[in-house]
Structures are given as C-alpha cells and as structure tokens.
Amino acid sequence: MLLEVRDLHVEFHTRDGVAKAVNGVSYGVDAGETLAVLGESGSGKSVTAQAVMGILDIPPGRITGGEVVFQGRDLLRLKEDERRRVRGAGMAMIFQDALSSLNPVLSVGDQLGEMFTVHRGMSRKDARAKAVELMDRVRIPAARERVKQYPHQFSGGMRQRIMIAMALALEPALIIADEPTTALDVTVQAQVMELLAELQREYRMGLILITHDLGVVADVADRIAVMYAGRIVESAPVHDIYKAPAHPYTRGLLESIPRLDQKGQELYAIKGLPPNLMSIPPGCAFHPRCPLARDVCRTDEPPLYEVSPTRGSACHFWRECMDD
Ligand code: SF4
Ligand code: MG
C-alpha cells in the first residue's frame, strides 16, 4: 500500500466542547489506484485528508490516535522536519477553490515555475519552460502565451487545471483532491475529472478523491469509502456499490443522484441532518435518519461487517439493505 490510514481519531476542542470529527477511520490507497471518499459535509472526509497532509492546525484539531503510514513509514511518529520532507516530496493536494489557493499578484508561470526554482534548484528560464510544459500537460490552450497571465484571467475550469499542474509539478506519489470540481459547471466538472483520472493513470499515482457527489466518481474511482459522523460506514469496489449498496446511507446517496431517465420524478433525499459531532447519537450514528432502523440500532454500534473479502458495511442489517 502506498498510503494506509489506520484507526485514525481526530478531535476539535472548542469553547462548547469536544467535536469528535474522525472516530477510527481506516483506509488505504495503492499506486495507480483511485479511492473516492464520499460523505456529506461534516462527515470527516476532509479532516481525515488534512490529517494525512499535515494541515490540521487551523482550527485547533488534534490527532488523538491512529497511524498514517505512507510508503511504509508512520508519519505521525516521525520528527517534524522529517515528516515535512516526506510529505513535501511525496504528496500534493488540490482544493475546491483555486482562486483563493493561487497567488493573485503572481503570473501563473511564476507560480508554477517557483515549484522548480525552489524545490529543484532550476534556473528561472528552465523553470519557465517546465511551467509551459505542465500547462500543456493539463491541456491549457496556447500555454506559451498564457503562462504570462494572472489567475483572474483564467476561467474556473482553467484555474482548476492550473491547480492540477501545481500538484503534479514535483511528481508526487499521492494526490489528494478535496471537492476539486464542486465549484464548476457540470460539463466542465466532467472534463476536469476526466483529465485528473487520465493523469493519475499516466503517472501511476495514488489518488484520493473527496466528494459529496457520488455522481462524479462513478467513472474514475476504483474503490469508494463512504463516511458518516467520522466513521467509514461502507467500503467497497465502485461497481459493487452501484450494483447494490450494503448500507442505507449509501443507498440514500445513490438515490439522490439525478438520473436522465427519471426526469420529473422527485429525487430521494435522505431525511434529516448529519449529527452534531459534539453529541453523536449512541448505537448507529445514522439511526435517527435511517428507514431500516430498529431498537438494536439505538444501542449497539455496528462494527464494519465483512460483506465480502473486499467489502465492508457498518450496518447490522446490511443483508436486508442489499436485498431491498
Ligand atoms: Fe440503519 Fe440500523 Fe443499519 Fe444503522 S445499523 S444503518 S440504523 S439499519
Ligand atoms: Mg470538506
């Protein structure tokens, strides 16, 4: 495994109490593999990724347990400077909002070039040539001219391509993309996602794709991990999930995807809201919203049951859910 997160716990200490954001998450991704991490906002999917990347400092998050094993070493047990070096060389992140991640007063070429002057000790001229090459790679037309332009002169989709180019610059083994297409139009979303998937294959990187939208990952993910209230509630190869979800929450997410053949029909939406992380419901955290819930769900927390050797579900009634 390129990356293995094991039994990770993260808390946020606030004035009102302790928010349990991540409660025992385990997942892994291999070189050349794409893992989609799915869930509503507040499910812990971003916080888990931030713990992997080492950017949990704001707001005051604290890793209270677990391991983040990257290329065979537990990052959480390395010294700070060593940890930073390993992460800097091996992983990169792409965020939803390119405009606030890019520097508005530096040309795109200077920002891309900086990756090579600072981290690879290249001359400005060589770095500029690399910047053009990268812009070609992410298929920005007229790269040689546009390399001189500033972030605001690009469309949202083109800016997101620049973010992808920045992430690729040092050829990381792992890229984490947090809602990389959420701010874009649907057609542009598909193009950017397709590009990301293509580059991932070409570079044989591990890719973790964080999203709330099951619709955008169907064609690109190998595996899906569904998160709820800081836990993984279902983990499976992508095709298994689409064929028959083994958790009522996954089923709810699937049925919320708009389908062309169901125009006019009302979309199934999961009723209610995700729980407050300062007071997660006892038993199965999903029980207040679950159409299959019964007494045992309110008292006994479901473990991740083995549905198949490659698939797990944290639902006492996963069989029933699949047969439904
Ligand atoms: Fe629903 Fe119970 Fe399964 Fe939780 S354990 S998802 S409440 S049926
Ligand atoms: Mg998020």
From TrEMBL:
<keyword id="KW-0547">Nucleotide-binding</keyword>
<feature type="domain" description="ABC transporter">
    <location>
        <begin position="3"/>
        <end position="254"/>
    </location>
</feature>
<dbReference type="InterPro" id="IPR013563">
    <property type="entry name" value="Oligopep_ABC_C"/>
</dbReference>
<dbReference type="InterPro" id="IPR003593">
    <property type="entry name" value="AAA+_ATPase"/>
</dbReference>
<dbReference type="GO" id="GO:0005886">
    <property type="term" value="C:plasma membrane"/>
</dbReference>
<dbReference type="InterPro" id="IPR050388">
    <property type="entry name" value="ABC_Ni/Peptide_Import"/>
</dbReference>
<dbReference type="Pfam" id="PF08352">
    <property type="entry name" value="oligo_HPY"/>
</dbReference>
<keyword id="KW-0067">ATP-binding</keyword>
<keyword id="KW-0813">Transport</keyword>
<dbReference type="Pfam" id="PF00005">
    <property type="entry name" value="ABC_tran"/>
</dbReference>
<dbReference type="InterPro" id="IPR027417">
    <property type="entry name" value="P-loop_NTPase"/>
</dbReference>
<comment type="similarity">
    <text>Belongs to the ABC transporter superfamily.</text>
</comment>
<keyword id="KW-0472">Membrane</keyword>
<dbReference type="GO" id="GO:0005524">
    <property type="term" value="F:ATP binding"/>
</dbReference>
<dbReference type="InterPro" id="IPR003439">
    <property type="entry name" value="ABC_transporter-like_ATP-bd"/>
</dbReference>
<protein>
    <submittedName>
        <fullName>ABC transporter ATP-binding protein</fullName>
    </submittedName>
</protein>
<dbReference type="GO" id="GO:0016887">
    <property type="term" value="F:ATP hydrolysis activity"/>
</dbReference>
<keyword id="KW-1003">Cell membrane</keyword>
<dbReference type="InterPro" id="IPR017871">
    <property type="entry name" value="ABC_transporter-like_CS"/>
</dbReference>
<dbReference type="GO" id="GO:0015833">
    <property type="term" value="P:peptide transport"/>
</dbReference>
